[in-house]
Amino acid sequence: MEELARLAGITVRTLRFYRERKLIPPPRREGRVAWYDDQHLARLRTITALLERGHTLNGIAELAEAFDSGRGVGDLLGMEVPTEETPVRLTPEELADHFAGEVTPENLAVALDLGYLGVDGEEIVHISRRLLEVSSALVREGIPLGEVLRTGAEVRTHADALADLFADLILRHAPEETLHRLRPLARSVVDAELSLALDRRLRKRDNPM
């Protein structure tokens, strides 16, 4: 216990408190000896990262219970299953391979916060194959995963605003059931406008005057 607390950068008293709150799973016991492993250390570091991001211990306890019971974190955070995005099931090792060792407790905390990751038994579920492929491609290009996640959070804010604009437009002139049928049109508009915006950005870079 003392060694685990030291590696996690917390006190033994704090570790005992986390155990009492069931924030970490119990150790493996051999007689009177309690053995902790890397999973316990990773959990403690993730708890620290979540606390630094402003999560409460009660909220972290719910996340920990979701991991241990196999409930989806996306469901826990109130996110509905996406209707068009394809979730991806991964082992922890496969997730780490996608991001070249950048699956740190801090980045994991951000991904949990955004609802990108969920848990189903011993597997990790990424909410979107497209987002997984794009983010891993950016990391392979040398962009830190933390920066990718922070940008993703900003993009989500703008995407929510765009979705509201499109929904308001449709619902002013058509019944609500039309919204789902016409959503491909919204994606096409956003894709075209983003492409044109990137064109303008590149022209501005090449011709600053």
From TrEMBL:
<dbReference type="InterPro" id="IPR009061">
    <property type="entry name" value="DNA-bd_dom_put_sf"/>
</dbReference>
<keyword id="KW-0238">DNA-binding</keyword>
<dbReference type="InterPro" id="IPR000551">
    <property type="entry name" value="MerR-type_HTH_dom"/>
</dbReference>
<feature type="domain" description="HTH merR-type">
    <location>
        <begin position="1"/>
        <end position="66"/>
    </location>
</feature>
<dbReference type="InterPro" id="IPR047057">
    <property type="entry name" value="MerR_fam"/>
</dbReference>
<dbReference type="Pfam" id="PF13411">
    <property type="entry name" value="MerR_1"/>
</dbReference>
<protein>
    <submittedName>
        <fullName>MerR family transcriptional regulator</fullName>
    </submittedName>
</protein>
